[in-house]
Write a structure and sequence with these properties.
Blueprint: H1 2-19, H2 24-34, H3 36-56, E1 62-79, E2 87-108, H4 110-177, H5 183-218, H6 245-255, H7 257-277, E3 283-294, E4 304-315, H8 323-389, H9 395-430, H10 435-442, H11 474-478
Length: 489
């Protein structure tokens, strides 16, 4: 009775484990909170956006306060009657203090203006990087998820292959014992069987490695690779919209985060050149001060003076040994470099966009062809089993047919994974990849409504992101508006 209860409890635990298997959307939601790379990207974006506030400071009023207090001891020697009279020496000890407030407002400062525009471009760059990392997280989650599933498919294929070789080895041994076969056939089959055994071991290690990669992204500890929901057997490829590549190219040129980031980098370099050029121009500021002095000099002991001033201050660096000229030349070269990098990024993105566009279209045809191959292999196994029952075939023929079916099923699964990845990568290169696209891809996999949020390992409070990452609106991050609309030069 006790053993029966234990067995029932173990069976129940296995059922519950499968019921709480991880599906794709839960993996994505968990990665938003737990993936270290994405959390670092969020904080990097926060730091980058602070450049706007930092750079704006030079254009706003500057308020300075100062207070000074001291005890003075003065040794004074001076003639009593004219220049040639006797010298009188006196010692004076007295306290003094000084305090003042000063307000400065820039009126003409080209360097401060360029610095402000540069800070705005740096903030926009941070936003573009965050958009890229947000989209990249979608790709990495799907990649890790499908890598684990494909590792399971590979293991099934190699296991079926091993069984087929084992049966073939037994047949060859029986034929050799009856004098119908050769030792060469048995040795070749044994070598194939041992190779298949090694492939099964390697496939098992691949499963464990890919499981750990998925765990690292999601922060969820999986009991086994079976805790991940598989892809659905029914798989309908959706038509690509829009169909024309020119429309995808137009979207990429205006929305792709990498292109936007390179353009912001170019603007940063352009404003750096403006800062260097500003070194040839004067700076003009308005000043207002209020100060109070008490016994500040020995000649003003016990005297208190309060002074208020208002005026204009101008500064112009007329010559500094050619430093400004060198900075201008350097900044201009950096700008031309940034422009070349923008062109390179634009070309690379369009090339990758075309690659993923072609991959989506070709994979549609490949999935359809492999579906037919699986159907044919399935019919072959059924026919082979009937032939074995009729005495026309042997069990080895069934195993070889099963191996063919396993190969077709594995290749079909890989084609499905590649199609989904190519679809998301195409949207990523176009710059309009959102969480809604992830939800669309998730419909191709089995969903688990009973998944428990408690399975998600929350990060420590000290290291948890301060912004609500779990509720990040990916749509708003894919094509970020400029933090500041940069005025013209």
């Amino acid at each position: 009775m006790k053993k029966s209860l234990i067995a029932s409890a173990l069976a129940l635990s296995l059922v519950m484990a499968n019921a709480n298997a991880l599906d794709l959307m839960n993996a994505y939601e968990a990665s938003l909170a737990n993936d270290p790379t994405f959390r670092a990207a969020v904080k990097d974006a926060e730091a980058g956006r602070a450049n706007l506030e930092i750079s704006r400071g030079a254009l706003l009023p500057q308020l300075t306060a100062n207070y000074y207090s001291a005890i003075n001891n003065t040794h004074l020697a001076q003639p009593q009657f004219g220049t040639y009279g006797p010298t009188v020496i006196s010692n004076q000890a007295y306290p003094s203090n000084n305090s003042y407030f000063q307000v400065t407002q820039a009126l003409f400062n080209l360097q401060a203006v360029a610095q402000y525009r540069q800070g705005a471009a740096q903030a926009n760059l941070a936003q573009a990087k965050l958009a890229y990392n947000t989209q990249d997280l979608l790709i990495r989650v799907l990649q890790a998820y499908t890598d684990l599933l494909f590792a399971r498919d590979q293991y099934s294929y190699y296991a079926a292959q091993k069984v087929a070789f084992k049966e073939q080895l037994q047949v060859n041994n029986r034929r050799f014992e009856k004098g119908e076969g050769t030792i060469t056939d048995s040795l070749e089959t044994r070598a194939s069987y041992e190779m298949a055994d090694a492939q099964v071991i390697e496939a098992r290690d691949t499963i464990e490695n890919n499981k750990r990669k998925l765990e690292a992204i999601t922060g969820i500890r999986l009991q086994s690779a079976a805790d991940v929901k598989p892809i659905l057997k029914t798989f309908h490829v959706q038509g690509l919209k829009p169909r024309a590549f020119a429309e995808w190219e137009e979207m990429a040129l205006s929305l792709n985060p990498e292109i936007l980031a390179s353009q912001h980098n170019e603007e940063i370099a352009r404003q750096d050149l403006q800062k260097s050029v500003a070194g040839n121009y004067p700076t003009i500021s308005a000043l207002a001060t209020w100060g109070q002095q008490n016994s500040y000099y020995i000649s003003t002991i016990n005297q208190q003076a309060t002074t208020s001033t208002a005026g204009i201050q101008a500064s112009w660096n007329l010559f500094n040994g050619g430093q400004v000229t060198g900075q201008i030349s350097q900044s201009r070269s950096n700008l031309e470099k940034a422009q070349a990098q923008t062109d390179e990024t634009r070309g690379r993105v369009i090339t990758e966009l075309r690659k993923q566009y072609d991959a989506v279209l070709s994979t549609e045809q490949k999935v359809a062809a492999l579906k037919r191959a699986v159907e044919s292999a399935t019919e072959l196994t059924k026919a082979m089993r009937k032939s074995v029952r009729g005495g026309e075939r042997i069990n080895l023929d069934i195993l070889l047919a099963d191996k063919t079916l396993a190969t077709a099923q594995r290749d079909l699964a890989q084609a499905k994974y590649n199609y989904l990845l190519a679809y998301l990568r195409l949207k990523q290169q176009a710059g309009n990849l959102t969480s809604e696209d992830m939800q669309t891809v998730a419909t191709y996999f089995e969903l688990d409504e009973a998944f428990k949020p408690a399975m998600v390992k929350a990060p420590p409070a000290s290291s948890a992101p301060q912004m609500p990452i779990g509720n990040v609106n990916v749509r708003n991050l894919t094509a970020p508006p400029n933090v500041v609309d940069l005025p013209g030069n």
